[in-house]
Amino acid sequence: MTTQEKLIDSARRLIQTRGYNGFSYADVAEEVQVRKASIHHHFPAKSDLARAVVEQSRALIVEQTQLLTAGDFDPETKLRMYTGYWEKCIADASAPFCVAGMLACELPTLPDDLAAEVRAHFRDLSNWLEIVLTRGAQMGRYELKGSARQEAESFLAMVYGAMLAARAYGDPKVFADIVANGLKKLAPTRAPKQPEISRRPSSIRKRP
């Protein structure tokens, strides 16, 4: 791992646990074991470092979106992989809260360039969810109560609300329970209607 990658990785952990305004270059320097001047060489301003963290997350979302549009995929598997990733991260404390979610909480105090990157992250994630939910509805796997865009935004809010609840209660299981309920609500209320088999009256009459 290069020094730049180590700096981004360190900043991600610090933002996830302390928020943007809760860490400094001194914290990163101590964790990565470099001088602050070395950090400034790679990232002149603190917002540049935080933006690099968010850009890394956005790149993964964009990559996943391109994979969705490239061919066939199972929407349920994709959605459960997304929620399952966060369930594991919260349970083992490797990523107790999404870095973009932490930054969104501090949005009014963030530099403009970083705030714009955070908003773009949520737009990318919402677009990804919209594609997954649309395909799921087309396949009869999901029953959407509103438009795919509205459902995507609602699901996004549910996931981030579940992260917050799990942190507030200090119980990772809270996240899993809320998400399981949210996935359950997407399921169709009744089985897809089976096509009817046409029955033509027989022209041959049985003899008595």
TrEMBL record:
<keyword id="KW-0238">DNA-binding</keyword>
<dbReference type="Pfam" id="PF16925">
    <property type="entry name" value="TetR_C_13"/>
</dbReference>
<feature type="DNA-binding region" description="H-T-H motif">
    <location>
        <begin position="24"/>
        <end position="43"/>
    </location>
</feature>
<dbReference type="Pfam" id="PF00440">
    <property type="entry name" value="TetR_N"/>
</dbReference>
<keyword id="KW-0804">Transcription</keyword>
<dbReference type="InterPro" id="IPR001647">
    <property type="entry name" value="HTH_TetR"/>
</dbReference>
<keyword id="KW-0805">Transcription regulation</keyword>
<dbReference type="InterPro" id="IPR011075">
    <property type="entry name" value="TetR_C"/>
</dbReference>
<feature type="domain" description="HTH tetR-type">
    <location>
        <begin position="1"/>
        <end position="61"/>
    </location>
</feature>
<dbReference type="InterPro" id="IPR036271">
    <property type="entry name" value="Tet_transcr_reg_TetR-rel_C_sf"/>
</dbReference>
<dbReference type="InterPro" id="IPR009057">
    <property type="entry name" value="Homeodomain-like_sf"/>
</dbReference>
<protein>
    <submittedName>
        <fullName>TetR/AcrR family transcriptional regulator</fullName>
    </submittedName>
</protein>
<feature type="region of interest" description="Disordered">
    <location>
        <begin position="188"/>
        <end position="208"/>
    </location>
</feature>
